[in-house]
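Ticket #4471: structure output looks truncated?

Reporter: J.K.
Steps to reproduce: submitted the chain below (146 residues) through the standard prediction queue, then opened the result file.
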Amino acid sequence: MTLMRIDPFQDLREWNSAFDRFFGNRYSRSVDRDPALSPWSPTGDVSETPTEITFTVELPGVEKDEIDIAIDKNILTIRGERNLEKEEERDFHRVERWHGKFSRSFKLPTTVDNSKIDAALKNGVLTIHLPKAEEAKPRQIAVSVS
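Returned output as attached by the reporter:
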């Protein structure tokens, strides 16, 4: 009789590793969050078209002047702070909404044109448009007859 060691979490670890390889290597190489700075991390989406990459990040309750967006060495970093609004005559029995400082970083591909990045905050959603450089955009090549 052969004894086998069974790890009930092995499949979960393999799936997580595959997920990280698929998504992590492309845009967010787990520079993702600085735990010392961030007790919370805003959620968001990354999408791509032939002409641009778009980051959409949920930041309800965060004002425009409380957000800092920077790019350094092809790493896009979004930092900010959401403050807990306390009223003098109100005692909280439960606080479930995250507050405090946050930071998210994403590794960008070299195809992004850093000089044309645009960001807008509307209804608590931050949208960052990162246009691709002209040489990275798909183009049609005409065939000539000689």
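Triage note (M.O.): checked the attachment and the full token line is present. Residues 20 and 79 are 23 Å apart (CA to CA).
Status: closed, working as intended.
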